[in-house]
Amino acid sequence: MSDTDLQALSPAKRRRLIAVGLLSALASTAVLVALYFLVPFEFIAAVPLWVTLTVAVVVLLGVTTWQVRAITRSAHPRVRATRALAVTVPLYLLLFAATYFVMASTDPENFSIQGLTRLDTLYFTVTVFATVGFGDISPASQAARLLVMLQMILNLLVLGVGIQVFLGAVQRSRQDEAQGPMSGADRNS
What we know:
Elements: H1 3-8, H2 11-38, H3 49-72, H4 77-106, H5 118-129, H6 142-179
Helix pairs in contact: 2-4, 3-4, 3-6, 4-5, 4-6
């Protein structure tokens, strides 16, 4: 069943499919946030910052690649793209929040406020992502400023290129569907 077939569903079945997709997206986000608050980050503190960032970027690229493949193989690519965004964007934000938390824990002089909690660093990450920047927490060291600048640049890429990649995957899936049906085993939601 393709996205065009989604329109052919009864309104009740269409709402159910969309609701399941949204609930799945919400559940994915909730799991990622819970992991952020539960996983001990003490073991990361001994690892150099550049190694941590490299691993984070590789994880993010791997998840993004997997999500694009899932969209292109999905019977409902638009619904699947919503789920993909609900995993990829929070993961991106939580990776930065975790890095900021480790930086603040390792050296309290990295930020303008001492003793930042996980919630503080998540809040800071989201304010940088949303370009709000209230100024209550700010980077104080050169390393922290460099990382925040990197996040700002990557924010533009995530918002511009990242969303375009997911939309392109939806379009590709729809084109593939128009060219010929695939077996039920090859397409999932």
